[in-house]
């Protein structure tokens, strides 16, 4: 009777051990399969990244980096002509590498810097303030005409700004992801140009 109990106990332990073995085996197989899938996905992603980057010529990338550096240097020096020329080169390099969002931002920046140069040369902010505070009458009318003459003398900056902001708007609409901030800045620059054109009674 004692031997039968021992045999029964040993049998139960054997079955229990075998079940644990099966469970562990199944879990390990599942984990290995998942690891293989993750590894495969990882290398697929790496290959996709390589495919994107491999199409960019090293010389084009270096030219792009230099254009970006030159633009930042020009900003630091606060040299308008240098800023414009470096931005144009920056845009050219970005377009060559199909970096549309970068080119869109820089077209907007070109418009912005031309607007700022116009404001600086005409003392736009101060003149607008004076017009706003003046009482209606002959003096105000004379001052408005004076402002119009000055604004027209520097209008080439607004003309260039208009040209660049149109390009920025076109590219912005073609971007896969619409950046709300960029869209807002483009719209603000467009509105400023429209405001100047209304003041000067220029239809565009």
What does this structure look like?
The protein is mostly helical. It folds into two domains: 57-98; 100-204, no CATH class. The chain has helices at 2-54, 58-77, 80-96, 100-122, 124-133, 138-153, 155-174, 180-199. It starts with a helix and ends in a 5-residue tail after the last helix. Residues 1-54 have low confidence and may be disordered.
* SSE succession: HHHHHHHH
Q: Note the total helix count.
A: 8
Shape from CA axes?
Answer: elongated
Amount of helix: over 70%
Model regions low in confidence, pLDDT < 50 over at least 5 residues: 1-54
Mean pLDDT: 80
Tell me the count of domains: 2
Rg estimate, integer Å: 34 Å
The biggest sheet amounts to:
none
Beta strand %: under 5%
Classification by helices and strands: mainly alpha
């Amino acid at each position: 009777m004692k031997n039968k109990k021992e045999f029964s106990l040993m049998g139960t332990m054997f079955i229990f051990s075998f079940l644990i073995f099966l469970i562990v085996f199944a879990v390990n197989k599942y984990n290995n399969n998942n690891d293989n899938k993750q590894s495969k996905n990882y290398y697929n992603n790496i290959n996709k990244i390589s495919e994107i980057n491999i199409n960019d010529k090293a010389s084009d990338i270096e030219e792009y980096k230099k254009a970006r550096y030159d633009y930042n240097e020009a900003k630091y020096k606060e040299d308008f002509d240098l800023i414009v020329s470096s931005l144009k080169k920056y845009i050219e390099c970005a377009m060559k590498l199909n970096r549309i969002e970068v080119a869109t931002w820089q077209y907007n920046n070109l418009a912005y810097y031309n607007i700022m140069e116009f404001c600086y040369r005409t003392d736009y902010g101060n003149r607008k303030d004076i017009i706003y505070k003046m009482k209606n009458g002959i003096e105000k009318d004379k001052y408005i005409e004076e402002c119009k003459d000055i604004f027209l003398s520097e209008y080439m900056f607004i003309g260039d700004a208009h040209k660049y902001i149109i390009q920025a708007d076109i590219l912005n609409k073609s971007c896969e992801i619409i950046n709300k901030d960029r869209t807002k800045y483009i719209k603000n620059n467009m509105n400023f140009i429209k405001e100047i054109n209304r003041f000067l009674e220029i239809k565009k």
